[in-house]
TrEMBL record:
Compositional bias segments (type: Acidic residues): 63-86
Segments of skewed composition (Basic and acidic residues): 96-117
Pfam (any one): TonB_2
Alphabetical keyword list: Membrane, Transmembrane, Transmembrane helix
High-level lineage: Bacteria, Pseudomonadati, Pseudomonadota, Gammaproteobacteria, Woeseiales
Keyword ATP-binding: no
Name by which UniProt lists this protein: Protein TolA
Regions that span the bilayer: 6-28
Superkingdom assignment: Bacteria
Region (Disordered): 58-117, 144-192
Organism: Woeseia oceani
Length: 301
């Protein structure tokens, strides 16, 4: 088959340009400072002669009866780039490898140091957080303890006040009770004494009415008369009234001449006779005893 469209020469030209471009890129890559070669990834389609014939067969044939028409030639499909052959990697430089190894170690060391620094910072922050939490907890517990003690003290104070109030109430109640008992005892004692005095007075009146009082006073008068010393100025018919105070045993403690028809010497003689008569005679009936006696003294009878 005749190649009327010149497809084969065009495809070969494109392939040649691709190879030249690849060689230039490889040459530029080797000119760099021992950098590892980076293979270029190219995508190419292999065009065979059969494909070219298929394209040729699809071309339109001229029509005899019609005049020739200038039709635009179809653009040729791009030829696939040939796969590049793997290049032999350059031999690495030991010094460069050592430098890279040291740099990598230094980088790893820096990373570890940075990680350690960050860890220490986080550790300090965690310790500070724990310390603050513990301090806050301690303060909270102190406040809670203070509040508890305050409540306990307030409760104790309330109890003390209540106890003091009850104590005062009890003291006041006891005082009122004692006063009541005292009044009752005094009233009972007063009543007892009054009853006793009334009873004694009744006995005394009964004794007087029975003649025992007359005999008691007569015995006292007789003893006073026996102890009387008649003064020279005494006149016949002497009569004196003496107020005598005696003790329960009859001892005379006081004598007052209330009324007397004699002179001062007679009055003194009557008073002396009463003192000499101590102890005065005691009544057989104790109801007749009286501390204060009113005795009529007639020494001449």
């Amino acid at each position: 088959m005749r190649d009327d469209l010149n497809i084969i020469p065009v495809a070969l030209a494109i392939l040649l340009h691709v190879i030249i471009a690849a060689l230039m890129i490889v040459g530029l890559d080797f000119s760099r400072a021992q950098q590892p070669a980076i293979p270029l990834a190219m995508t190419a389609t292999l065009v065979t002669e059969a494909d070219m014939q298929t394209v040729t067969q699809k071309a339109p044939e001229p029509v005899i009866d019609e005049p020739p028409v200038d039709e635009p030639e179809p653009e040729p499909e791009p030829e696939p780039e040939p796969e590049s052959e793997p290049e032999t990697p350059p031999v690495p430089d030991p010094a460069e490898q050592e430098r890279q190894r040291l740099e990598e170690e230094k980088r790893q060391q820096d990373i570890r140091e940075e990680q350690e620094r960050v860890r220490q910072i986080q550790l300090r922050e965690e310790q500070e957080r724990i310390r603050k939490e513990q301090e806050a907890e301690r303060i909270r517990q102190q406040k809670a303890e203070a509040e508890r003690k305050k409540r306990e003290e307030a409760e104790k104070e309330k109890q003390r006040e209540e106890a003091e109030r009850k104590r005062k109430e009890e003291v006041e109640r006891q005082r009122l009770e004692n006063e009541r008992k005292k009044r009752e005892a005094e009233e009972a004692e007063r009543k007892r004494r009054l009853d006793a005095e009334l009873a004694e007075e009744a006995k005394r009146l009964a004794a007087q009415q029975s003649g025992e009082m007359a005999r008691y006073i007569y015995a006292i008068q007789q003893k006073i008369q026996r102890n009387w010393v008649r003064p020279p100025s005494a006149q016949p018919g002497i009569e004196c009234v003496a107020l005598v105070t005696q003790l329960p045993g009859g001892d005379v403690v006081d004598v007052v001449i209330d009324r007397c028809n004699g002179d001062a010497a007679v009055r003194r003689s009557i008073e002396a006779a009463i003192y000499k008569a101590t102890p005065l005679p005691q009544p057989q009936n104790r109801a007749l005893f009286d501390r204060n006696l009113r005795i009529v003294v007639k020494p001449e009878q």
